[in-house]
């Protein structure tokens, strides 16, 4: 069965590019454009990997991360944050909240794929 | 610090100019032995003699004085400590300054500049974190760049990509490159205006761009009301709306205007006012539209010259049209006593009040306000609400059945009302308190 990734991102053309990249790698890609219902969606889909933007409408990626990590069920879920907010403080906050990997935009496809492979290696 | 560094400096400067001790002493009218004592810091020096020596050496007296040296040496010590030099080296700062004054100045100036640049970086970093407009602009720029980079990389690397995907990605690249051009322009515009070079009224945030756009059009859009141009077309043609956010905001307001005008045309509204008067409830009933629609339509009537303010349920202002004697501050939060905010706690209730703006003029206004849901109604889900307030100037000889006006201010910082339960911060008005 295909591994499942949930991509929470509000930028349609990034969604399209990442969907293409990961589908080509054999992933099933679900997408979500607003932050407000992202946690609910994670609970429903139980993805193998969550890719999360930081600045999202409704709820920030950081708040989503904090909420998920406060639930034992999602303590081990690999969460890759892709964000335009690359300041030290943003990275430190995300790391303190339990992000698995923090990458800044604009990212390279090779780096993203390497991170995905690395985070989901069994 | 060692005493008498001025002497050391004099010696160094003299050596640099190639003057012998006796020559300099002769020029300034003292004995060579006395100059020797000065140069070895065994005599204090100041006043006219110092000025004469400085003049003979072709430097400012301040360059030889201890005050200047003290500041210089302190700066050198600071630089040495910051560079984590051993204490023994830190303590030789005065000797270094005495022997190599020029180099010492260069080093100290460099250290000062680093400090100034670090402070600038801190300020910009703080601004990036706390200035929502700047953060949003940078975010938009980087997101678009990310989309372009990722898409271009797929097109370059994947030789087996299907025609369908390739075409899609080409379209995406085209869209993103346009967006990138637009958001870069908006960011430059924002930063240039923030630098304050242009003086006068400078446009910074998207909301300010929108305010300027509506002000240029006198808040009147007959072509949109008449259906000869769409909101999208007008926004696309506008040179003043530069940022994506400003265009988004303006487009939304103009689309609402088009819908409102379709439901209630200006001339029909004016006819109906003639027949039933300026009564928003009766007008709403007659046209079978919401009261907020009527308030917006009345706000767009040139003849009424009314102000209009719209906010969301957080109290954030979405639209503001000023009228003579009544303005809403651009940056500060408005007066909490505005009837606009009353409706947020009692959705659907239509208020009608008389207000007077404290400290502005003797003008009074008749104000209608209502808050209405703007989102789809769902069970157990508080709807999104928008409050709308129409501000109609009352002529001085105009009688109103409303008795005492509610006194409001523009914003706390410039409001002269000393005892106000809604005051958030002191007023800066000197005539106040």
Task: Walk me through this protein's architecture.
- The complex is a heterodimer of chains A (122) and B (433).
- Chain A is an alpha/beta fold and 122 residues long.
- Chain A has a single domain (4-119), classed as 3-Layer(aba) Sandwich (Rossmann fold).
- Chain A has 5 helices and 5 strands; from the N terminus they run βαβαβαβαβα.
- Chain A has helices at 12-24, 38-45, 61-69, 88-97, 109-119; strands spanning 4-8, 28-32, 49-53, 79-83, 101-104.
- A 5-stranded parallel beta sheet of chain A has the order 2-1-3-4-5, with helices on both faces.
- In chain A, 41% of the residues are buried.
- By secondary structure, chain B is α+β, with helices and mostly antiparallel strands.
- Among the domains of chain B are: 131-192; 309-433, no CATH class.
- Chain B is built from 18 helices and 6 strands.
- Chain B has a 6-stranded mixed beta sheet.
- Chain B starts with a helix and ends in a 25-residue tail after the last strand.
- The A-B interface holds A 11, 13-14, 16-18, 20-21, 24, 55, 82, 84-85, 87, 89, 104-109, 112 and B 125, 128-129, 135-136, 138-139, 141-151, 153-154, 157-158, 165, 168-169, 172, 175-176.
């Amino acid at each position: 069965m295909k591994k499942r990734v949930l991509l929470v991102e509000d930028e349609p053309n990034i969604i399209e590019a990442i969907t293409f990249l990961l589908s080509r790698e054999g992933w099933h890609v679900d997408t979500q454009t607003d932050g407000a219902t992202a946690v609910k969606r994670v609970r429903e889909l139980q993805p193998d990997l969550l890719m999360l933007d930081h600045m999202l409408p409704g709820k920030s990626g950081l708040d989503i991360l904090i909420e998920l990590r406060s639930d034992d069920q999602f303590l081990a879920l690999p969460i890759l944050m892709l964000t335009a907010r690359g300041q030290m403080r943003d990275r430190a906050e995300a790391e303190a909240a339990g992000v698995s990997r923090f990458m800044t935009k604009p990212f390279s496809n090779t780096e993203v794929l390497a991170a995905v492979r690395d985070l989901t290696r069994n | 610090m060692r005493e008498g560094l001025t002497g050391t400096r004099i010696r160094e400067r003299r050596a640099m100019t190639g003057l012998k001790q006796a020559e300099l002493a002769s020029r300034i009218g003292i004995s060579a032995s006395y100059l020797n004592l000065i140069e070895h810091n065994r005599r204090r020096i100041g006043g006219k003699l110092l000025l004469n020596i400085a003049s003979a050496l072709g430097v400012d007296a301040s360059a030889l004085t201890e005050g200047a040296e003290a500041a210089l040496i302190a700066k050198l010590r600071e630089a040495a400590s910051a560079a984590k030099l051993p204490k023994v080296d830190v303590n030789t700062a005065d000797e270094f300054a005495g022997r190599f004054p020029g180099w010492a100045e260069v080093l100290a100036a460099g250290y000062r500049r680093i400090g100034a640049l670090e402070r600038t970086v801190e300020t910009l970093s703080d601004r990036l974190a706390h200035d929502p407009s700047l953060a949003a602009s940078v975010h938009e720029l980087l997101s678009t760049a990310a989309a372009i980079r990722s898409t271009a990389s797929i097109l370059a690397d994947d030789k087996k990509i299907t025609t369908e995907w390739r075409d899609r990605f080409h379209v995406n690249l085209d869209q993103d490159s346009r967006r990138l051009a637009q958001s870069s322009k908006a960011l430059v515009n924002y930063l240039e205006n923030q630098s304050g070079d242009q003086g006068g009224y400078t446009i910074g945030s998207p909301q300010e761009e929108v305010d300027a756009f509506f002000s240029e059009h006198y808040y009147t859009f007959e072509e949109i009301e008449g259906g000869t141009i769409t909101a999208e077309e007008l926004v696309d043609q506008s040179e003043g709306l530069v940022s994506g956010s400003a265009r988004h905001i303006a487009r939304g307001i103009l689309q609402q205007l088009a819908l409102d005008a379709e439901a209630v045309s200006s001339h029909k509204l004016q006819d109906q006012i003639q027949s039933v008067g300026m009564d928003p409830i009766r007008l709403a009933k007659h046209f079978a539209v919401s009261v907020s629609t009527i308030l917006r339509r009345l706000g767009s009537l040139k003849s009424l010259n009314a102000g209009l303010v719209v906010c969301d349920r957080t109290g954030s202002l979405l639209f503001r049209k000023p009228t003579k004697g009544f303005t809403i501050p651009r940056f500060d939060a408005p007066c909490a006593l505005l009837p606009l905010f009353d409706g947020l706690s009692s959705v659907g209730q239509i208020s009608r009040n008389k207000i007077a703006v404290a400290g502005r003029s003797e003008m009074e206004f008749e104000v209608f306000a209502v808050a209405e849901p703007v989102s789809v109604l769902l069970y157990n889900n508080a709807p999104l609400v928008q409050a709308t307030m129409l501000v109609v100037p009352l002529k001085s000889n105009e009688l109103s059945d409303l008795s005492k006006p509610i006194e409001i201010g523009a914003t706390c910082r410039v409001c002269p009302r000393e005892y106000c339960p809604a005051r958030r911060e002191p007023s800066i008005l000197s005539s106040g308190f």
